[in-house]
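sorry for the late reply, my laptop died twice this morning and i had to redo everyting from scratch. anyway the thing you sent over, i finally got around to it. pasting the sequence first so we're on the same page, its 157 residues, then the predicted structure underneath. double check i copied it right bc i was rushing
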Amino acid sequence: MSEINYTGGCQCGAVRYNAESLGRASICHCRMCQKAFGGFFGPLVTAFGLRWTRGKPALYASSNKVSRGFCTECGTPLTYDWGGDIEIAIGTLDDPEQAAPILQVNPADKLSFFDNLHALPVRDFEAGSIEVKFMAGISDLQHPDHDTVIWPPKDKP
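ok and here's the structure:
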């Protein structure tokens, strides 16, 4: 039987973590999560046995009851701490597929257009278009989706 590894971290690699197991994954529609994530909702999962393996997040008290952890180097939102079990941002997992949301919370703040996002048209780019050329020229400077001994590597800025 193989052991599942729940690892993750911020965009730049300054903060990395490991969790023994994951709990319930959800998306939170509250206005504080919208602002903290800069998105339409906050995707979170409870992380049991959470250990910081490189660096630690800075904390911001977003309310009188909640503090949120983030990387001071790149700004990645990492944690939600309400005084119970700490939750981590699902997108920071090296494999976000390990935490598919099963619940939506705080629906009173859900944005009016959220339930129709799946119906939006998908824009495909034609071969040779400026968009395809632009995307082909992007060099990813993010930390890879696995632990590294040193970050950044010597050949990266």
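DSSP finds two helices and ten strands in the chain.
thats about all i looked at so far, will dig more tmrw
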